[in-house]
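Batch job 17 of 40 flagged for manual review because the log was empty.
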Amino acid sequence: MSAYKQFLASDIIVSPFEVNKGFSFKQSEWGTNVQIDRFLGTSGSFEFNQTTTGTLSTQYQVLVYNSTKELYYSNFLTQSYGDIAQTASLVPGNDTAGNVLVGPTNSTGRYFNYLQSTLTASRYFPTGSGDEVAVVSVSSKLFGNYIQPYSFIFDYSSSFKAYDDGEGNLYSSASFSWVSNELEYFYYSESLNFVSFADASQITLDTPTSVPAGYTFDSASWTGPTNKTPFRDTSNIAFQAINNQGITFDENTGIMTTDGSVWTFVDPSPETGPIVVTWVSSSFIVKSVSANENVGNIIYPHGMAIFTNQNIPLSSITTLANATCSFSSSLTIYETQYKCTIRENEFNFSLNPSLISGSTDGTVYGYVTSSYFSPYVTTVGLYDEFQNLLAVGKLAQPLPTTATTDTTILINLDR
């Protein structure tokens, strides 16, 4: 059987406490249940660049770049330690209408950029044409209230690993080099004299002897009088310089030949030029970062890791499959404690049917009326105002009540 007693406000205590859990997910596990997404942001105009990005959701690259800049870097575009807030000075007038503001009222240092530390922040955001940022977004379902500082690690194909310093910055754990898809060009030039003219398809220059290995013909420029230039296009318009379209040049013989598709030649005699011939060689640019070099920032309560260093493979970071994201979540759980107090004069009689004797009039056994008899508590139930059972607490063993002192049972519920 049961008996009811109403709680007082002082009987209920709500206490928050923080719990943490570490996670490590490979890219193959990212999906509906493990919501970790990656986005590439690119500077530029949305009118001309509407390229999309994202794995779980689709965003526009230009808008990712602009949103990241506005939210987290708008105070750090002109200097890494933030723009100084500029405020106008008030010159009081005879009355309110006569007050005058002197100085700038617009300021780039007035925005809230979600700084993750009370230390002086240093942030870098690329603003050049075509610059990129990479964003790794972790769902709040995974990190709870925020990602624990010092816990974030992004492992890019076991070659590049970024960690957070607990102050909102991301650093490379070791030196890392990679070959980008950007070409670096190297030029070599020689000044050669005009020697002879064969016809509109061929001229001969001095024979050069020192062209570096691996270099190919790139362009030629006439340095003599403009009206004597040997370079014409198919419409017979004169040019001081030509590119390599339809042109071959044999540096062993000094013979320059055109196929007539773009350029033709004329005889500049008696001028000799000279003609500056340029050769070019190219190779892919190798980019690198050193150990403990800053590569971006992390916004702990937003679950956003932002890579801004232009010397890391930002595009691959947002697409490569062999990546691992590790972090610890932080979630605040509220524990409610209910203090169930049984006064010395309460619940000293039991309504349990097992106490009724076999008589038809419902008489209880004699020991029940004894002054030594004490009921036992086995279960505590929590009810709402309509007496609907909401929760049940079972005691480890039956607890006898006492007629001389109060008995308190504590029930803790986490939510």
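Reviewer: the log was empty due to a logging misconfiguration, but the result itself is present. The first strand starts at residue 12 and ends at 26. Unflagging and moving on to job 18.
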